[in-house]
Amino acid sequence: MESINVLKGYGKVNSTLENKGPHHSKTIRKSLIVASLLLTLIIGLMLAALIYESNTEPSESESDSPSLSSASNSVNSIKTVCNVTRYPASCFTSISSVNVSIKPDPEAIFKLSLQISVKELKNVSSLFRTLNDANSKAAINDCVSIFDEALGRLNDSLSAMEVGPGEKALTLEKINDIQTWISGAMTDQQTCVDGLEEMGSTVLDEVKAKMKNSTEFLSNSLAIVAQMQSLLEKFDLKMH
After folding, report:
1. The Pectinesterase inhibitor domain covers which part of the protein (predicted)?
2. What is the pTM of this model?
3. What CATH number is attached to the domain comprising 109?
């Protein structure tokens, strides 16, 4: 009996739709098509908005990590400064490898370059105390004294940049003095090499190879300080 009642109900619904006529069915179909188009349009607009937002807004990791931006600024600053040197690759590698916070300031970068030069010069100086060549012993001893003098010049340069509150880190006078001291240290290195060559030293090639980094680092430091004024202008800074 229940199945018969269901069938009877179905028949009533079916007959009701038929009584409404074909015109009513077309109206329903048109309404469904319009609704479908509107839904598609809304979904498309929502997707477009999401894509635009993802492309224009920084990611959560970037917005929560200001250090990423700082690191990028440091890298660009070092590159800008090192581009004035004769050995930009060794300049950038040596300075960027220092595990300290580097300010986007040519003076701060120059000071690091100078400290790196001092460290490398000490490494070369320690080599002469281990060399054993009887024929050029006198020249080797001269090199020890010469490198001590060169280190003294570089330490004078670093001392000139250590200033108290209100004092100027770099002035034109200081820049001229530092250029003279670094040039003197470079001359000292060459004097050592010349002395070993004159004595026909068997350790000459070893010394030259050891001096490669210190020679480049000194050259880089000299170039940076020589171009300090123009570098400060690139960073929109002025001489202190």
Report:
1. 73-224
2. 0.70
3. 1.20.140.40
